[in-house]
Design a protein that fits this description.
mainly alpha, globular, single chain, 395 residues
Length: 395
C-alpha cells in the first residue's frame, strides 16, 4: 500500500470502470437495453444477465463497487491516525472530484455542440438516442457547475455518481468518528442507524414539499444518503482489514465465486420476482465486501491484481469513467458511417484508454496536485497558528 491506496483494490476499480464502458456500449443496442430491465429476447441474453457472466457488463454493480471502495480508501488515513483538518480534507476531495468533472463536462458539451448535427444513426436504443440529443442550454450549463442532475444524460450521463461522491465525501468524517470510537457491532449499528435516520427524515420532508427546486434538492440529498450506506460499509471493512485471516487458494476461489454470485444477483429478480432494488443492492454490496475480503486475504490474488496492466487501469480508472461517453459518441457518429456500427462500438473500449491516460496526466494529476498544495497550506497555517496560541489559552 502507498499513499493510502491498495494497488489490488485500485485494480478492481479499473476493471469496474472498463465494465461500465462495456455496459454503455452494449445497452446502446435495444436487445441489451431490454435485457438490462429483465426483458430477454432469447435464452442467451437471459443467462448473460442472470448468471455471473453478467460481471462483464454489470454497470450498476460496478458503480456500487466504486462507492464501497471510496469509503474504504477515505477511511484508511483516518484510522491510521494521520491528522488532517476538515478544511484540508474537503479541499482535497473538491479538487479530486470537481475539477476533473467540470473540465470533462464542459469538454463534452463543447463536442456535442460541434458534432450534434452529424449524429444520424438509426435503429439503436433509447439509451443511445438520448445522448447528444439536443443543444446544451444555459440552464444546463449552470446546473453542471452547481452539480445538479439536470439534463446530464444529454451530455455525459455518468456524472450522476460524482454528485453523490462529492456530497457523501463532505459528511463521511462524521460517520468515521463513530466507526473509530466503537467496536464493530456498535459502530455498524450507530453509523448505519444515523444514516437511515437521516434518509427517512429527508424522505418524510420530501413527502411534505410541493414541486420545486427545494424538493429536487431534498430528493438528491436523500439519494446521497442511500448510497452513503456503501461508504459506511467500506469504511467498516477498512477499519478491520488487517484482522482478516490469510486464505489458501482453494478458499479464495470459493470466496470469489460466492462474491460474484451475490454481486450479480439479477437471478433473484427473475427466479423469485424480487422487484425491490434496495434488496438486490444490499445483496450486491455484500458480494462486493466479500470480494474485497478475498483480495485482502489472498497473497496470490493480491499479487495478480498488482500486475502493471491492472494497476495502470486502476490509475486511469476515474478518467476512463469520465471520458468514455464522449469517446463513444465521436467514434459511433463518424466511424459508424463507414464501418458496421457493431465494429465501431467494439473500438470504443480500446480508444477510451489513451484518451483516459491523457486526461489522467493533464487533468486529473494536476487537479490532485492542486488539492494537495492547498491542503498543505491550510495545514501549515493551522499548525503555525496553534504554536502561536498563548499557553494560558492553549490550556
Amino acid at each position: 500500500m502507498s499513499n493510502n491506496r491498495i494497488k489490488s483494490l485500485d485494480s478492481l476499480r479499473g476493471i469496474a470502470s472498463m465494465i461500465v464502458v462495456i455496459f454503455h456500449c452494449l445497452i446502446a443496442f435495444t436487445i441489451f437495453e431490454q435485457a438490462n430491465f429483465n426483458r430477454f429476447a432469447n435464452d442467451f441474453l437471459k443467462y448473460f444477465t442472470i448468471t455471473p457472466l453478467h460481471t462483464l457488463w454489470a454497470g450498476r454493480e460496478a458503480v456500487l463497487l466504486f462507492f464501497v471502495l471510496s469509503g474504504f480508501v477515505l477511511a484508511i488515513p483516518f484510522f491510521e491516525g494521520k491528522t488532517q483538518s476538515y478544511g484540508a480534507y474537503a479541499i482535497r476531495r473538491f479538487c479530486r472530484i470537481y475539477i476533473p468533472y467540470i473540465v470533462l463536462m464542459l469538454a463534452s458539451a463543447l463536442l456535442l455542440t460541434f458534432f450534434l448535427e452529424y449524429k444520424d444513426i438509426q435503429g439503436l436504443s433509447g439509451s443511445y438516442d438520448n445522448r447528444w440529443n439536443h443543444p446544451v442550454t444555459l440552464k444546463a450549463i449552470i446546473a453542471y457547475f452547481l452539480m445538479e442532475n439536470h439534463d446530464t444524460t444529454n451530455v455525459n450521463g455518468v456524472v450522476w455518481t460524482l454528485f453523490h461522491e462529492m456530497r457523501i465525501s463532505l459528511i463521511l468524517p462524521l460517520f468515521l468518528l463513530i466507526i473509530r470510537r466503537f467496536n464493530l457491532i456498535g459502530a455498524a449499528i450507530l453509523s448505519l442507524g444515523l444514516n437511515f435516520l437521516i434518509y427517512f427524515a429527508l424522505d418524510s420532508w420530501a413527502a411534505m414539499l410541493d414541486e420545486g427546486r427545494l424538493l429536487i434538492m431534498v430528493k438528491a440529498v436523500r439519494w446521497s444518503m442511500y448510497y452513503c450506506t456503501c461508504f459506511i460499509l467500506g469504511a467498516l471493512l477498512s477499519k478491520y482489514r488487517n484482522k482478516l485471516p490469510k486464505l489458501k487458494i482453494a478458499y479464495t476461489v470459493m470466496l470469489v465465486a460466492v462474491s460474484l454470485v451475490l454481486i450479480n444477483c439479477r437471478w433473484m429478480v427473475v427466479l423469485f420476482q424480487v422487484k425491490d432494488q434496495r434488496i438486490t443492492d444490499v445483496i450486491t454490496i455484500a458480494g462486493i465486501l466479500l470480494l474485497f475480503a478475498a483480495v485482502l486475504s489472498s497473497d496470490r490474488l493480491n499479487s495478480f491484481l498488482s500486475l502493471k496492466p491492472f494497476t495502470w487501469l486502476g490509475q486511469i480508472s476515474f478518467s476512463l469513467y469520465l471520458v468514455h461517453i464522449p469517446v463513444m459518441m465521436i467514434i459511433t457518429i463518424f466511424l459508424g458511417k463507414i464501418i458496421p456500427i457493431e465494429a465501431a462500438f467494439l473500438l470504443v473500449p480500446l480508444a477510451s484508454l489513451p484518451v483516459a491516460h491523457f486526461t489522467y496526466k493533464y487533468v486529473e494529476l494536476p487537479s490532485n496536485k492542486l488539492g494537495r498544495s492547498i491542503a498543505n497550506a491550510i495545514e501549515g497555517r493551522r499548525k503555525k497558528n496553534s504554536k502561536n496560541v498563548p499557553i494560558s489559552r492553549a490550556v
